[in-house]
Design brief:
Length: about 325
């Protein structure tokens, strides 16, 4: 039996929970006209959940059955491997993954599984040459995604891909890209011309037309939620909203855009920590109904692999 042909674009937005449209929720308060048009006036908040032809929004669990606040290393491992890294370690692990998680990521990431199934996959994020050199030399520690990309043997995207409109930076508009975030520069600072979020979204939407699985990661919402960058939460919401508009207007008919997160943060303007809120699972495109069975971040990757026909069993 011939299966339906699907392409997937996974937009991973670090630190975005799905919470009610209350005054402390920037996703409710800050203007997001494109998300409102897509989802209704509540935008990307609890209360806008829906499932109809080609569109799904639901809240999914990010706590992984473990006490305490969900964190990036274990949450992203769950998202990108479909295995519960927090249960493995017995706790939520912050920041960059340690050796046990890295072994799991190297073995089981969606990049590896899709590549082994003979399908085309790419990581759309651009990195500076300085960072990539430091990563290869072991002097920069890998994130969950960079560990997964390296272990799957995928090509990296750099400044040259940005210039050709074939990559996107983590901050979407390129103004923060290449600058040290923690005071410790990796490689020399890189300056690239800023672009509008909507244009960056168009670049990503077009790139997704060339691969069965395209992944983009932005940790802008998490950094803003922690108050670690100079951008107000409303500006991050504006960027995400414009960016998704650009993605959706260039999405090929067979591509389903999936947006999700590893844990909450941005949606609670009252705290600067992560939250135990559900995270959004937003899907736009023909495979959207197939994601309706996903109830937790650990179920996302297996579902994506099934849609692509790349599941191992
Ligand atoms: Zn965080």
């Amino acid at each position: 039996m011939e299966r339906d042909y699907h392409r997937l674009l996974l937009v991973f937005a670090d630190g975005v929970g799905l919470a009610p449209a209350a005054g402390a929720n920037p996703l409710a308060v800050a203007p997001s006209p494109h998300l409102d048009r897509l989802l209704g006036p509540g935008g990307l908040t609890a209360g806008s959940e829906q499932s109809r032809n080609g569109l799904l929004l639901k809240g999914i669990d990010a706590t992984l059955g473990v006490d305490g606040l969900p964190q990036s290393a274990t949450g992203q491992t769950a998202l990108f491997t479909g295995e519960n890294g927090a249960a493995l370690l017995g706790r939520h692990a912050t920041g960059l993954p340690g050796s046990r998680l890295r072994r799991l990521i190297a073995r089981a990431s969606v990049f590896r599984r899709v590549t082994e199934a003979g399908l085309a996959t790419t990581f759309a994020n651009a990195y500076t040459r300085g960072y990539l050199d430091a990563l290869a030399a072991g002097s920069a520690r890998a994130s969950v995604t960079t560990c997964a990309v390296a272990a799957a043997g995928l090509d990296w995207r750099t400044e040259e891909h940005l210039a050709a409109g074939r990559a996107v930076t983590w901050d979407i508009e390129r103004d923060l890209f290449g600058r040290p975030l923690t005071g410790r520069a990796i490689g020399s600072p890189v300056r690239v011309e800023p672009i509008a979020a909507r244009r960056a979204g168009r670049h990503l939407g077009r790139l997704a037309g060339d691969h069965e699985l395209t992944v983009f990661e932005t940790f802008l919402p998490d950094l803003a939620g922690h108050g670690r960058i100079g951008l107000p939460a409303a500006e991050v919401v504006r960027r995400l909203d414009d960016f998704l508009a650009g993605v959706l207007e260039t999405r090929a008919p067979e591509t389903t855009v999936v947006l999700t997160s590893d844990h909450g943060n941005l949606e609670d303007g009252g705290v600067r920590t992560h939250t135990r809120n559900p995270v959004p699972l937003l899907a736009v495109g023909p495979a959207a109904p197939r994601l309706a069975t996903v109830d937790s971040i650990v179920e996302v990757a297996p579902c994506l692999l099934r849609i692509l026909g790349a599941a191992s069993s």
